[in-house]
Design a protein that fits this description.
about 625 residues; mainly beta; five-stranded mixed sheet; 5 helices; 35 strands; about 5% helix; globular
C-alpha cells in the first residue's frame, strides 16, 4: 500500500470522528475508577480495601489496543519493561519488573501458573499469548509467593480468558492488515496479517466456547545487518472450553489449548537461516463449589512444551511438561475476615540426556481483614516443600488505612513480604553445569505508598519499593550452577495517575524510577514514563494518543563482552476506532511510532519504525 494512501485513510477516519454528531456526555462511559480487584487476595475486593496498587487492564482497554500484542500492552504499565516488545514480532521477550529478571515474574492464566520447564530460565513465553482470547489482565507487583508460590518475586501477571455469552450462539471475528518495517525502510509494503474467530454461547446449564487466532509477520530482519534479509514469524492458537452448571452451588469448566509458532531468527549482528518451531498444548479444569459464606475451588492443568531449533549448529529439541494443581477453600467470617486455606502441587518434567523432574507441595494460608473504621490487613504464609532441597518458608504482611474524605479517600499502605524462586531443571540436572545441591533464591520486598481518589474522576498513587535478592543462582569458574554470595538490591518509585476531566475524555499516566545495585542492570531502564490520552468524539468514534519514554539502559555486546549504554528514546502511537454498526461492526486504524523514531531497544536487533494497521471487528 502506498504511503499517501495510508495517510489518506488516517485523515478520513479522524475527520469522520471529529465531525460526527455529538451525543450527551452522560451517555458515554470512559472508565470505571471504582474497580474491583482480585489478584492480591483471590477475593473480589474494592480497590480501596486492597493494600496494593493493582494494575487492571480491562476489556475496554484491550479493545482500544486491537492489533497490538499482549507484550506491547503490558509494556505500557508502571514498573515493567518487556524487552523486545518494540522489535520484530517473534523476538525473544524478557519481562523485567522492579529491577528483576524474567524468572522473577510469574504468569497465571485462569488461576493456573504457566512456565516452560525445558528452557534455561523456565519462563513462560509471552509470544504464546493472543489478546483476542483475553477478558482482562491484573498485575500485582512485589513479592507474592504467599498466594502464588515460586517465581512470584517481582510481579504476577494474572490473565483471565473470555467467558461464554449468555446467548445460545454468539461470535466475534476480527481481521487486520498492516505494514511491518523499520525506520530506515519506509516502503509501506504489507507485511502483517492478523485474524481471529470466536464462537461461544450457553444452552441451559451447558456453556461452550471455541476460538482460533493467527498472525503472520514478514518484511523485517531479526538482526541489524546490511543484507536486512526478512525473518518470518507465524503464530496459531486454538482454544476449546466446555462448562456445566450442575447446580446453583457447583460448576465445572474444562478446556484445551494448542499454540504453535514458527520463527526465523538471527544472532546479534549476523544474518543466519535459523528457524525455531515451538508448540504448547495445555488441558485443564476449574471448578467451584459454593455454600453460604464459603467456597471450594480447584484449578488444575497439564501443559506440554516442545521447541525445535534448526540453526548453524544443527537441530536441537527441548521437551518439557508440568502438572499444576491449586486447591483452596475461601470463607468469609462476619463480613470482615476473608480467609483462604489451600495447597499447591507442581510437578516439572524435562528431557535432557535423560528424563528429570522435581515436585513441589505447598500448603498456604491467607487472611484479609476489612474493618469498618478504615483499617485493612492482608497477611499470609506458605511452607514450600521441594523434592530436592527440602523446605522453605515465606510470608507477607500488608496493612493499609483508608481515610474517607468528602469526595473520595486517601489510602496509606505498606508491606513486608518474602518470596522464593526454585532452581529450575536445567540448573539442577542440566548436562552443562547442573547442580542438584542448589538452594532456592530468596527475595525480600519492603514497600510503602499513598493513593488519593477524588470525585470518581481523579486517582493518583505513588509508592517506594526496596527489594533484596540473596542466594541467586549463577556460575562458578567451571560454569557449574551455584548459589552466589553476592546480594542484589533494587529500589525505586512508581507513580500512577488517572484523570477523567469530562465524560468523554480520560488521561492515564505513569512514571517509574528503578535503580539496581550489585550487577550491571542489563536492559533495565532507570527512568520510564507513559502518557495516554483517550477521547470519545461521538457515540461511535473514539481515538487515543500514547506517548512512551524509555530511559538509558545497558546491554551486553557479546562480540567484545562489554556493556554498552543505549540511548533513551520516545515513541508516539495513535489509534482510532469507529463503530459502523452499533454493537456489531467496528473498524480501527493504528499508527505506531508515528514520528518514525530510529532507536535501539536491544543491542544488534531491529526495531519497528512508523507502521500502520487497518482492521475490523464483527460481533454476531
Amino acid at each position: 500500500m502506498k504511503k499517501n494512501h495510508l495517510w489518506l485513510i488516517t485523515a478520513l477516519l479522524a475527520g469522520k470522528g471529529v465531525f460526527a454528531q455529538n451525543v450527551p456526555q452522560d451517555s458515554l462511559k470512559v472508565q470505571q475508577l471504582d474497580e474491583v480487584v482480585v489478584s492480591d487476595s483471590k477475593f473480589e475486593l474494592k480497590r480501596e480495601n486492597s493494600g496494593k496498587t493493582v494494575i487492571k487492564i480491562t476489556t475496554d482497554e484491550l479493545q482500544r489496543n486491537q492489533g497490538r500484542t499482549v507484550a506491547e500492552i503490558i509494556n505500557t504499565k508502571s514498573g515493567i519493561e518487556i524487552a523486545g516488545s518494540r522489535g520484530r514480532d517473534g523476538a525473544v521477550l524478557g519481562a523485567f519488573a522492579r529491577g528483576g529478571r524474567g524468572r522473577q515474574v510469574l504468569i497465571v492464566i485462569d488461576g493456573v501458573r504457566v512456565s516452560d520447564p525445558s528452557t534455561f530460565s523456565a519462563e513462560y513465553d509471552l509470544r504464546l499469548l493472543s489478546p483476542n482470547t483475553i477478558e482482562s489482565i491484573e498485575i500485582i507487583k512485589g513479592a507474592a509467593s504467599t498466594l502464588y508460590g515460586t517465581n512470584a518475586a517481582t510481579a504476577v501477571i494474572n490473565i483471565t480468558t473470555k467467558k461464554s455469552s449468555e446467548r445460545e450462539v454468539a461470535g466475534n471475528f476480527e481481521t487486520s492488515i498492516g505494514t511491518n518495517q523499520t525506520a530506515d525502510d519506509q516502503s509501506y509494503d504489507l507485511g502483517s496479517i492478523q485474524n481471529s474467530a470466536n464462537v461461544n454461547g450457553t444452552l441451559g446449564k451447558f456453556n461452550y466456547g471455541v476460538d482460533f487466532s493467527n498472525r503472520y509477520k514478514s518484511g523485517m530482519s531479526a538482526a541489524v545487518t546490511p543484507q536486512n534479509e526478512e525473518d518470518i514469524f507465524s503464530h496459531f492458537i486454538t482454544n476449546l472450553r466446555l462448562g456445566y452448571q450442575f447446580s446453583e452451588q457447583f460448576e465445572l469448566q474444562v478446556y484445551g489449548n494448542q499454540t504453535k509458532f514458527k520463527n526465523e531468527y538471527d544472532t546479534s549482528m549476523m544474518d543466519a537461516p535459523n528457524l525455531g518451531d515451538n508448540e504448547q498444548q495445555r488441558v485443564g479444569l476449574s471448578s467451584e463449589y459454593s455454600y453460604g459464606k464459603g467456597s471450594v475451588h480447584l484449578n488444575a492443568a497439564y501443559s506440554d512444551y516442545e521447541s525445535i531449533a534448526n540453526d548453524t549448529f544443527g537441530e536441537s529439541t527441548t521437551e518439557g511438561n508440568n502438572w499444576v494443581l491449586d486447591l483452596y477453600h475461601k470463607y468469609v467470617f462476619g463480613e470482615q475476615f476473608h480467609t483462604i486455606l489451600g495447597v499447591n502441587y507442581i510437578k516439572d518434567e524435562a528431557r535432557f540426556t535423560q528424563e528429570v523432574d522435581f515436585t513441589i507441595v505447598d500448603p498456604y494460608a491467607n487472611v484479609v481483614y476489612v474493618s469498618d473504621f478504615g483499617l485493612n490487613l492482608n497477611a499470609g504464609a506458605r511452607l514450600n516443600n521441594h523434592s530436592e532441597y527440602g523446605n522453605h518458608f515465606v510470608f507477607n504482611v500488608n496493612p493499609s488505612f483508608v481515610f474517607d474524605t468528602e469526595n473520595g479517600y486517601v489510602k496509606l499502605f505498606g508491606s513486608y513480604a518474602t518470596s522464593y524462586i526454585t532452581p529450575n531443571l536445567t540448573q539442577l540436572f542440566g548436562a552443562f553445569g547442573g547442580n542438584p545441591n542448589l538452594e532456592p533464591e530468596e527475595n525480600t520486598t519492603i514497600e510503602g505508598g499513598v493513593e488519593l481518589k477524588l470525585d470518581n474522576t481523579f486517582r493518583i498513587s505513588t509508592l517506594y519499593f526496596d527489594r533484596n535478592e540473596t542466594n541467586a543462582i549463577g556460575f562458578d569458574a567451571n560454569f557449574t550452577s551455584i548459589n552466589v554470595a553476592d546480594e542484589i538490591d533494587a529500589n525505586g518509585v512508581e507513580v500512577e495517575a488517572t484523570w477523567l476531566p469530562w465524560n468523554n475524555v480520560s488521561v492515564n499516566a505513569n512514571y517509574t524510577f528503578t535503580e539496581r545495585k550489585g550487577d550491571n542492570a542489563i536492559r533495565i531502564p532507570k527512568h520510564k514514563a507513559n502518557l495516554s490520552l483517550w477521547y470519545q468524539f461521538s457515540e461511535s468514534t473514539n481515538a487515543s494518543l500514547d506517548y512512551a519514554y524509555t530511559g538509558e539502559r545497558f546491554d551486553t555486546d557479546f562480540n567484545t563482552f562489554s556493556d554498552i549504554a543505549l540511548e533513551p528514546f520516545s515513541l508516539l502511537n495513535f489509534a482510532i476506532r469507529h463503530e459502523l454498526i452499533k454493537n456489531k461492526l467496528n473498524v480501527f486504524l493504528n499508527a505506531d511510532n508515528l514520528l518514525n523514531e530510529d532507536y535501539r531497544e536491544l543491542l544488534g536487533f531491529t526495531t519497528r519504525g512508523r507502521n500502520f494497521r487497518l482492521g475490523f471487528s464483527l460481533n454476531l
